[in-house]
Amino acid sequence: MALSLYDVGVATYLQTLGAVAGFLEKGEAHCRANGIALDDMIQTRLYADMAPFTFQIVSVAHHSLGAIRAIQTGEFKPPSVPSGIDYAGLQKLIAGTRDELTGLSREEVEALEGRDVVFALGDVKLPFLAQDFVLSFSLPNFFFHATTAYDLLRMKGVPLGKRDFMGALRLKR
């Protein structure tokens, strides 16, 4: 079975980004129905030394579309959270990320296979091939941050289940 960079990366990102958009909607509805300020939600953390909800959602976008952009440019750096971003801004970020990824052609992404990409954090430089970057760095980070965002919403009482995390399955047609 041959897997393509598009299938492993873009198609997987889109599936989970759809789920993230869905659980963000449910989170907003839950907050509004229960008088929970959305501004309070975006600063929620699982533990004091962990990054807040805002960072989790920004990282989901950064480790998907940002990963593809990094392969195009050859360098990936950690995400930065836009100052003043609110819950609606996070929803818009996920929607925009999905739109941009949807606009990438299979051929465009496949042409990136084998390219060099470096993760750069200060003096630390980790070299990857594009496919190894996606499989061993981007996807694990992407799922970590999506899961953490999901867990933060669950912790606040948002009625979510496993199916909300899974997104639209790629079923045989």
In short:
With 173 residues, the chain is mainly alpha-helical. The protein is 60% helix and 8% strand.
Describe this structure in words.
The chain is mainly alpha-helical. It has helices spanning about 5-35, 40, 55-60, 65-75, 85-100, 105-110, 130-155, 160-165, and strands spanning about 75, 115-120, 125-130. The chain has a single domain (about 5-165), classed as dinb family like domain (Four Helix Bundle (Hemerythrin (Met), subunit A)), CATH 1.20.120. It has a 3-stranded mixed β-sheet. The two termini are about 20 Å apart.
Secondary structure blueprint with pairings:
Layout: H1 5-33, H2 38-41, H3 53-62, H4 65-73, E1 75-76, H5 87-102, H6 106-110, E2 116-121, E3 124-129, H7 130-155, H8 162-166
Give a quick set of tags describing it.
single chain; 173 residues; mainly alpha; Four Helix Bundle (Hemerythrin (Met), subunit A); three-stranded mixed sheet; 8 helices
Q: Class in CATH?
A: Mainly Alpha
**Overall geometry:** globular
State the major sheet.
3 strands, mixed
Helix-strand sequence? HHHHEHHEEHH
- Helix content range of the residues, please? 55-70%
CATH superfamily: dinb family like domain
CATH topology category name: Four Helix Bundle (Hemerythrin (Met), subunit A)
Strand pairing plus helix content: what structural class?
Answer: mainly alpha
Rg, alpha carbons: 16 Å
Number of helices: 8
